[in-house]
């Protein structure tokens, strides 16, 4: 059988088995006049890939106000922050679930089949959505851990972030690790019961396989 035929059969199987609606939660997403980071690029790539196979895709990010618009078939929802100034990133990150509980029922107002959070802030938002609406499969993506970015052993702030990471990543049904250093750090420094999948070199269609229910 030709490779093209195999790819077609695999695509048909994925289309039949994959969930039909997903919501992605992230600190960042490429928007006009915004700087595109590795995180934003990853979220955009996965959102575009999911849309290309016919899924209903929503992306939820913090914003300056509550609004939504369609970007190439992807529903981008921006949640305005009621409090703009925070003493540190932990206070900011922990405020995001409250915004989800307060505002997302009006902006989205339905349960989707899969929620996918990116990094600890996005995963907190995704978990809040799952607890609010129930029933959704929760995927978390990790690009780096706090043990790579900071020093939890000597900084209370860094230790608190690492504790939040361990908690929220443990709530996921699938944990995608997008770099080799992050996978090594996660294995060495965290007690995670969720299935971990190293996807640092995986093509997009392999990553999308985790959406199959």
Automatic annotation (TrEMBL):
It holds the Pfam family Glyco_trans_4_4. SUPFAM superfamilies: UDP-Glycosyltransferase/glycogen phosphorylase (SSF53756). Residues 43-177 form the Glycosyltransferase subfamily 4-like N-terminal domain. It comes from the Archaea. This is Glycosyltransferase subfamily 4-like N-terminal domain-containing protein. It comes from Thermocladium modestius.
């Amino acid at each position: 059988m030709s490779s093209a035929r195999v790819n077609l059969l695999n695509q048909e199987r994925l289309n039949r088995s994959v969930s039909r609606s997903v919501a992605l939660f992230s600190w960042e997403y490429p928007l006009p006049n915004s700087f595109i980071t590795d995180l934003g690029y990853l979220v955009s790539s996965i959102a575009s890939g999911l849309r290309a196979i016919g899924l209903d895709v929503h992306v939820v990010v913090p914003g300056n106000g509550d609004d939504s618009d369609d970007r190439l078939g992807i529903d981008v929802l921006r949640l305005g922050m009621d409090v703009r100034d925070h003493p540190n990133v932990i206070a900011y990150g922990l405020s995001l679930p409250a915004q989800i509980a307060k505002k997302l029922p009006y902006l989205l107002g339905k349960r989707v089949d899969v929620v996918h959070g990116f990094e600890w802030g996005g995963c907190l938002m995704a978990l809040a959505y799952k607890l609010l609406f129930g029933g959704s499969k929760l995927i978390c993506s990790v690009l780096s851990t706090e043990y790579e970015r900071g020093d939890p052993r000597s900084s209370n702030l860094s230790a608190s972030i690492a504790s939040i990471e361990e908690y929220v990543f443990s709530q996921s049904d699938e944990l995608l690790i997008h770099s080799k250093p992050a996978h090594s750090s996660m294995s060495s420094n965290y007690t995670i019961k969720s299935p971990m999948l190293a996807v640092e070199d995986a093509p997009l269609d392999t990553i999308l396989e985790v959406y199959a229910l």
